[in-house]
Design a protein that fits this description.
By secondary structure, the protein is mostly helical. The chain contains 78 helices and no strands.
Length: about 1600
């Protein structure tokens, strides 16, 4: 394609040789290239131009060029034309040049090529002067003139009739003909003949005649029937296009800048279109403005609307405002020049007026949506057409009763749309017309109302069931059309109407027939999409927001009324936008809630419904975070919305279904945040509060009847909830949401923890759990009090279905079923009463019990499936069902509460009497109200009293079958606590109180197999685990429960008489824990008052210990929960001064540590600390709380040692031991008449009877822990710190080491534990106190040894005696047990030693064990494993210790020292040897035991051998000199060490630490030393008594 550049210079130089052929070759190839036609064409032009250019420049001769061109011409047909183009270009170029030579060359070239290009082509393309010089024309001037004439003739001369030849008479006659009176029998055919005659006669222009006919028709529009046929028949003589052109010409005439097309012309065009005399397409092109201009204008409107919106949303300063206004004025002035009117719209209006819907529709389709109808005349014309079309149907179904209405006349036009006679007809045209109208239906409120009424009528028919299947399908289609119309027409039109409340109400009449799902869908479209569809709506939205801002800025509590009216006015037409803004403000400022709620009273029903939708939409907003940034609390926007919800739904009749379904859906999706809304709604609408901060008075009131609850139970006296709670109930029942919500909440409680709470902060998870639980309780309470019995029973399935099929947790399932049982029983009871009129109390009770049996029998069967069969060995299904089905209302009458409320009313009445200003009639009303209330309350109290008596009678009859105790009492208590008390006491505040009352009730009823002591002990013993696993609100309820339990215990503790009366002779206070049965028990088996006080002290100590532990963990949950619990139990704990001080120190420490870190903990701690200080004056020293009289404990010591103990012991065995203990104690009491001993023996039992909860499950409460707890107790009680230190050089370290090493270590290793353990102890970080202890231990080993020697001797002696004394009746029961006891329990026994006082275990246990071993020789019996043993052994150990402590003979200290020196070395050697043997044997025994019970006999024989061989024969222990006993003592220590490790391993270490932390400071320990020395002196006397006591019991035997 070289030509594209230029011809190479070589070609020109060597033209003749090679250039010519090259050029020809190039032209040939270009001509043959057909693929790119236009490219080829340009390239050929370029090549020819280059060649000619060389000729002009003189590089090539013109004849050479003409030769080659003559060859090239043949390559293409159009080559001559291309050449002419090239000449034309060169002609222009050369004529401009001054060099004449080039012009000459050009002329020569053209002349040479004249034979190649025709003259005519050149004349077309070349300049006249050039043509003249070429000789093609003579004169260029003449040529120019001639061409002008030809053009004029061609383009400008009109072929018209000469006006001079047109007869004006002809036209005059024509006009007269058309303008005559047409009312007679003149037809269009007749006139047409006349017109033809006139045209012929006067030689008229036919087109002009047609024009005049149209003019006349314009002036006489009423004669359609005449003119239309006339024009139609006239058109047969003309070309079809003529009429259209004439009309177009008429329209063009008015298209001047200020021209206005007359409506008559539009009408004529419309009628002609309607009769198809012209085509719309043909006429449309003649009309202005063009479609593009319309589109531009539409876009411009949208942009302007957006600018207005932007201006309104901008913050404009006042100085800028004035400038803005001035600018706007200038702009408006510029706009005054009016553009030519829109002829397309004019024609459209005319078409609508004549009823030509088809053509009108096609014009509208050419324009942007709603552009046409945004012009009012068109909208009104279309509305009028719709009026006409729906008239017959509206008259038939739409007119409201009593309304006359003004009928609308039909269009006198057969081609107009057919009128609608049925709903089906609406689909054909009307719905379509309405869709074109869109938001502009607002121009005709009457039509709006008619359409809505038709909708209502349709919905009525749609919802009636009498339709056939085909009709149903049609109706479905119609329904969806109606929804579309509502979405696209009705709601947007309402937006543009100016606050028309009636229309809003009218629309609601139709809306309320839609299900809420459809309604909300419509509101969503309206709010989020409709407003963006049209510039007018965009403006309205901005103005609404602007106005809403204005109102909201000024809204306060004081101006609620005027602001409310403004809000109402604004809401009638734009509720979605307004509410959206109001809600956004409420989410930011919660103090707006009250004024906003009050100001919403001027809304229409539709607006309330929209408000409900807006609230749900705001709640579901996915962009909003439901948690605050700290991730521990629920966002304030959600809280504000929730409380607004509650207030607004209560005050106004808004439909709740959507909101409730939303909450249910969120729960289904596993999200529980939104329960906050349900909680608020139920609280406000039903007046049912849930609060953890209830006072005890309120709680008490809540246990009464409904009236008392309303008067005294709630914080806010929420009155007048009858209507709102009815609405809430109806919404729940109509949409079947009552039970699903309950079940979802019950299931979601665990969902919160295991599914929802995965990533969340622990604190938030707790909050959500509480919220879920509280809402369930509140909602269940609402259902129970508001649903009728039938409704309730119909909806709530039986308990087994709830738990097994719906997987409802048991506590929640019973909570839901409880009202059902109560309803059932009362209705059954009423039935029976009616059947027989017997009025005696006895009869009534009998009927009540019968009705209970009838109702509860199926429940008893149902609950069996809820737990494993094993459970029912201990507690009966009847007991379980009874516990879960009763409430506080059934157990006690809150007389105080009733009295309090009645007195309040009396005071009110007095105040009314004294009030001088109150008008008399109001006084009378108020007094009547108060009197009526008073009567109601008294009546209610009476009713409840009767009910409670009946219930107690029923329980009295049931109680014997309650606790089966097929295993042990301890197991029974475990099951009771595990399955009944603990789940329920944290369910609600009232349930917490109920649980405590129920325990007391079971005690008072003297229920067989129920150990009250055990129960209380397990509740108080180790609260750490329960506290740590609670949420905040659960901790509060658990605190209430403990508070009520403590209240009972404190009452018993306070006065001997009360104790004797309420507990003295009750089976719950037996200290002998037989597996079954109760034989009335002699006094000796009962825990006496003084020992009970000791036990209470132990409980207080345990509570302190647990509290201190929790406070020191540093864990948020532990600290928070224990502080909540402590605050709740403040009235009854701490009562003992030193325990109170220990707590105070810990709490003070928390206050200091948490001040900066965790402010909420700091606040809790500060609050508690303040309250604790205020309680200080009421605390008492320990010796006032219980008599600390150590010698008294001797009496029981020896007996205890017979008795086994420890966690793994068989029950009957432990029981025997306890029994034995008591019997011997009794005897000694008789003989020695020592009251003190009587007191003591029982304390053992008390302790016996109180194992820990956890132990019972076998999980975690380690024995060593128990021991240490006891130690701690004594320490903190400032008892025998020093003794402990003096008497056991390494007792505690041993235990500790043991704990670490575990029980499976070989015994040999343990022999060295003494030293090792001391080392381990030293390794652990020590507090000062610990260090001090260690020092003391090192300092005084000698003294201690000597003491232990003595005491051991004594203890052996006592034990020996004791063994011989066991009463025969015990022997039978206890046979097989003993063998096991030694293996299982023996190990733990020694450990349990430290129970009552921190005296070393080592001393006590040796002698105990020996006695036991001897027993083993004689007894063996099958074992029942039980945990009761735990405590028995604790007791015994403790008493044993005391005994040991105090049996030191009254030797002077100097003597002791001498003995020490002599025997110390001997004793060490012997004990070591024995220990080694001992340990080996014991190891084997242990292994055997763990493998199987069958090997017991072997073990026991081994043990016997071992004893005979290795122990310093205890037979001689009476006579044995003090010097012998150290062996046993040392050995005992080792044993003790090995055993204490049992199951407890790590626990012991922990508790050890705790123990240390709780013990006093150095000073205290010194103080203790002194104390203990004094005690020792006292004790020696006690020891002697003890010996006597043993002898006496021996004789008795």
């Amino acid at each position: 394609m070289a030509a594209a550049g230029a011809l190479p210079a070589e070609w020109i130089k060597n033209w003749e040789k090679s250039g010519k052929s090259e050029f020809l070759q190039l032209c040939r190839t270009l001509s043959e290239n057909k693929s790119h036609e236009n490219v080829t064409f340009r390239d050929i032009q370029q090549a020819l131009y280059e060649l000619a250019n060389h000729v002009v420049k003189g590089n090539l001769k013109h004849d050479q060029a003409s030769n080659v061109l003559s060859d090239v011409i043949e390559f293409r047909d159009d080559m001559s034309s291309i050449l002419a183009d090239v000449f034309c270009i060169l002609d222009i170029e050369t004529s401009c040049l001054e060099e004449k030579s080039k012009r000459d060359h050009f002329t020569q070239l053209v002349l040479a090529c004249l034979y190649l290009v025709s003259d005519t082509v050149l004349k077309e393309r070349l300049d006249p002067e050039t043509l003249e010089s070429l000789g093609l024309i003579k004169q260029s001037q003449q040529f120019n003139q001639k061409s002008v004439k030809i053009k004029t003739k061609l383009f400008y001369k009109q072929q018209k009739f000469n006006l001079l030849r047109e007869e004006n008479e002809g036209y005059a006659k024509l006009i007269a003909e058309l303008g005559q009176d047409l009312s007679g029998n003149i037809t269009s055919d007749l006139i047409l003949e006349n017109i033809k005659s006139l045209i012929g006669c006067f030689n008229l222009d036919p087109n002009r005649v047609l024009d005049i006919i149209l003019e006349v028709y314009e002036c006489r529009p009423e004669y359609d029937e005449f003119f239309v046929p006339l024009i139609e028949s006239y058109m047969y003589m003309c070309e079809p296009q003529t009429l259209c052109h004439i009309l177009g010409f008429k329209f063009k005439f008015y298209q001047e800048p200020n021209g206005e097309t007359p409506s008559s012309l539009y009408r004529v065009a419309a009628v002609l279109l309607q009769h198809n005399l012209i085509d719309l397409e043909d006429l449309y092109v003649h009309l202005l403005p063009v479609d593009n201009a319309i589109l531009e204008e539409h876009k411009r409107e949208i942009v302007e609307a957006k600018q207005i919106v932007r201006k309104l949303t901008m913050v404009v300063l006042s100085s800028e405002k004035t400038e803005e206004k001035e600018k706007e004025k200038d702009k408006e002035e510029e706009k005054t020049e009016k553009p030519p009117d829109n002829q397309k719209l004019g024609l459209l209006e005319a078409l609508l007026k004549v009823g030509d819907w088809q053509h009108a529709q096609s014009i509208m389709d050419q324009m942007p949506p709603f552009y046409a109808t945004s012009h009012k005349p068109i909208a009104i014309a279309l509305c009028q057409l719709v009026h006409v079309t729906i008239e017959p149907l509206y008259r038939r179904v739409g007119v409201p009763k009593g309304a006359k209405g003004s009928p609308i006349s039909n269009l006198q036009n057969k081609r107009a749309p057919k009128q609608a006679e049925s709903f089906e007809d609406l689909r054909k045209e009307v719905f379509n017309m309405l869709c074109y109208l869109g938001p502009h239906l607002s121009h005709d409120p009457i039509l709006f109302a008619k359409v809505v009424r038709l909708g209502k009528a349709f919905m009525k028919e749609f919802q009636s069931d009498g339709n056939k299947q085909e009709d149903k399908e049609k109706m479905e289609i119609l329904f969806s059309c109606l929804l579309n119309i509502t979405d696209q027409v009705l709601l947007p039109s309402l937006t543009l109407m100016d606050c028309n409340a009636c229309m809003s109400e009218e629309l609601w009449g139709m809306f309320k027939t839609f299900p809420y799902q459809y309604r909300y869908r419509l509101y969503g479209q309206w709010k989020n999409e409709t407003y963006n569809s049209h510039p007018l709506l965009v403006k309205v939205k901005a103005q609404t927001i602007d106005r809403a801002k204005y109102i909201m800025k000024r809204l306060t509590k004081e101006n609620v009324k005027p602001s409310g009216r403004q809000i109402g006015k604004l809401s009638h037409s734009n509720p979605t936008i307004l509410f959206d803004y109001i809600l956004s403000q409420i989410q930011k400022y919660d103090n707006l809630i009250t004024p906003v709620v009050d100001s919403l009273k001027y809304l229409t029903s539709l607006n309330y419904d929209v408000l409900a939708y807006c609230i749900i939409e705001a709640l579901a907003n996915p962009e909003k975070e439901r948690m605050k940034h700290d991730d521990t609390t629920i966002s304030s926007w959600l809280q504000s919305l929730a409380s607004f919800c509650g207030a607004v739904f209560r005050k106004y009749p808004i439909e709740l279904a959507g909101l409730l379904q939303y909450v249910a859906n969120q729960l289904k999706a596993g999200k529980s945040f939104d329960l906050l809304i349900l909680k608020e709604v139920v609280q406000k609408m039903a007046g049912i509060e849930i609060t953890e901060e209830m006072t005890m008075e309120q709680l008490e009131a809540m246990t009464g009847g409904e009236q008392l609850k309303a008067e005294g139970g709630y914080f806010g006296q929420i009155r007048n909830t009858k209507k709102s709670s009815q609405r809430l109930k109806d919404a729940l029942l109509d949409h079947d949401l009552a039970l699903p919500l309950c079940l979802l909440m019950a299931q979601q409680r665990n969902g919160v923890i295991f599914q929802e709470g995965g990533e969340k902060h622990l604190k938030l998870v707790g909050k959500l759990y509480d919220q879920c639980h509280d809402t369930l309780v509140q909602f269940g309470g609402f259902l129970a009090s508001n649903l009728s019995t039938e409704d309730y029973i119909k909806r709530v399935p039986s308990i087994d279905v709830l738990c097994n099929e719906f997987h409802t947790p048991h506590d929640a399932a019973f909570f839901l079923s409880r009202p059902m049982y109560a309803h059932h029983i009362s209705s059954k009871y009423d039935e029976l009463k009616k059947a027989e009129k017997g009025n005696k109390q006895q009869h009534k009770v009998h009927k009540y019990i019968t009705s209970c049996e009838v109702v509860m029998a199926p429940v008893h069967d149902a609950v069996i499936s809820l737990h494993l069969p094993k459970v029912w060995d201990d507690i009966s299904p009847q007991f379980y069902a009874t516990f879960w089905s009763l409430t506080m209302y059934d157990l006690a009458v809150p007389h105080n509460s009733y009295d309090r409320e009645v007195n309040k009313l009396k005071v009110q009445m007095k105040a009314i009497d004294d009030n001088q200003e109150m008008p008399p009639n109001k006084k009378k009303k108020e007094k009547e109200r108060c009197t009526a209330l008073q009567d109601k309350l008294l009546e209610e109290e009476k009713k409840q009293l009767e009910h409670v008596q009946r219930v107690l009678q029923r329980l009295k009859l049931e109680k014997d079958n309650w606790l089966l105790a097929k295993s042990t009492k301890n197991e029974t208590i475990t099951k009771f606590l595990q399955l009944c008390i603990f789940p329920r006491c944290i369910f609600s505040a009232i349930d917490a109180v109920y649980c405590a009352h129920f325990v007391e009730l079971v005690h008072q009823q003297k229920t067989p197999n129920f150990s009250t002591l055990l129960c209380y002990d397990r509740v108080f013993s180790d609260i750490i685990y329960t506290v740590a696993s609670c949420t905040e609100n659960e901790a509060s309820r658990y605190g209430r429960f403990l508070c009520c339990m403590l209240e009972t215990v404190t009452r018993w503790h306070s006065d001997r008489n009360i104790y004797e009366k309420e507990c003295g002779n009750y089976p719950g206070f037996l200290t002998i824990l037989r597996a079954t049965g109760f034989d009335g028990g002699n006094k000796a088996d009962q825990l006496d008052y003084e020992n009970f006080r000791h036990v209470v002290h132990k409980w207080h100590y345990k509570l302190t210990k647990a509290s201190v532990h929790c406070l020191e963990t540093g864990e948020y949950t532990h600290i928070r929960n224990i502080l909540i619990v402590l605050t709740k139990i403040l009235p009854w704990y701490p009562k003992v001064l030193n325990l109170g001080q220990a707590l105070e120190r810990r709490v003070h420490k928390i206050c200091q540590e948490e001040k900066e870190k965790r402010p909420d903990l700091y606040a809790l701690a500060m609050g508690y600390s303040g309250q604790l200080k205020s309680r200080k004056p009421y605390m008492v020293p320990e010796n006032e709380f219980h008599h600390k009289d150590p010698p008294a404990r001797n009496a029981v010591a020896a007996t205890v040692q017979n008795g086994p103990g420890g966690a793994g012991l068989p029950a009957s065995l432990t029981i025997n031991a306890a029994k034995l203990e008591e019997s011997t104690a009794e005897e000694t009491v008789d003989k020695l008449k020592e009251k003190t001993q009587g007191a003591v023996k029982v304390i053992n039992k008390a302790a016996n009877a109180t194992p820990k909860v956890t132990t019972s499950n076998g999980n975690s409460a380690s024995n060593s822990k128990i021991i240490k707890e006891k130690d701690d107790k004594e320490k903190s009680g400032k008892e025998k710190d020093k003794e402990k230190k003096e008497k056991t050089p390494a007792a505690i370290p041993e235990a500790k080491a043991l704990g670490k090493d575990g029980k499976d270590k070989p015994k040999e290793e343990r022999a060295n534990k003494d030293d090792k353990s001391r080392e381990t102890k030293e390794k652990t970080p020590k507090s000062d106190k610990e260090k001090e202890k260690a020092k003391k231990e090192e300092k005084t080993p000698k003294d201690e040894k000597s003491k232990t020697v003595v005491t051991n001797a004594e203890s052996k002696f006592a034990a020996e005696k004791e063994r011989e004394k066991e009463p025969s009746r015990e022997r039978d029961v206890a046979k097989d047990m003993k063998s096991k006891e030694n293996i299982k329990g023996g190990e733990k026994l020694s450990v349990a030693g430290s129970l009552k006082s921190p005296v070393p275990r080592s001393e006590t246990s040796e002698s105990e064990r020996e006695q036991k071993r001897r027993k083993v020789d004689t007894h063996s019996s099958p074992s029942h494993s039980s945990t009761v043993k735990d405590n028995l052994c604790e007791l015994k150990d403790s008493s044993a210790k005391h005994y040991i402590n105090h049996t030191t003979p009254a030797l002077s200290k100097s003597k002791e020292r001498e003995v020490d020196k002599k025997d110390l070395d001997k004793s060490r050697e012997r004990s070591r040897e024995r220990e080694k043997k001992d340990e080996k044997d014991r190891k084997d025994r242990k292994r055997d035991h763990s493998n199987s019970d069958r090997e017991v006999p072997q073990d026991s024989t081994k043990r016997r051998k071992e004893e005979n061989g290795t122990t310093g024969s205890s037979k001689h222990s009476k006579s044995e000199s003090p010097s012998d006993s150290p062996r046993s003592n040392e050995k005992e220590k080792e044993k003790n060490k090995s055993k204490s490790s049992g199951k407890e391993k790590g626990d012991s270490v922990k508790t050890e630490k705790m123990e240390k932390s709780s013990s006093g400071s150095k000073k205290e320990s010194r103080h203790d030393k002194e104390k203990t020395e004094k005690k020792e002196k006292r004790d020696s006397a006690g020891g002697k008594e003890e010996k006597k006591h043993h002898k006496s019991s021996d004789k008795h035997r």
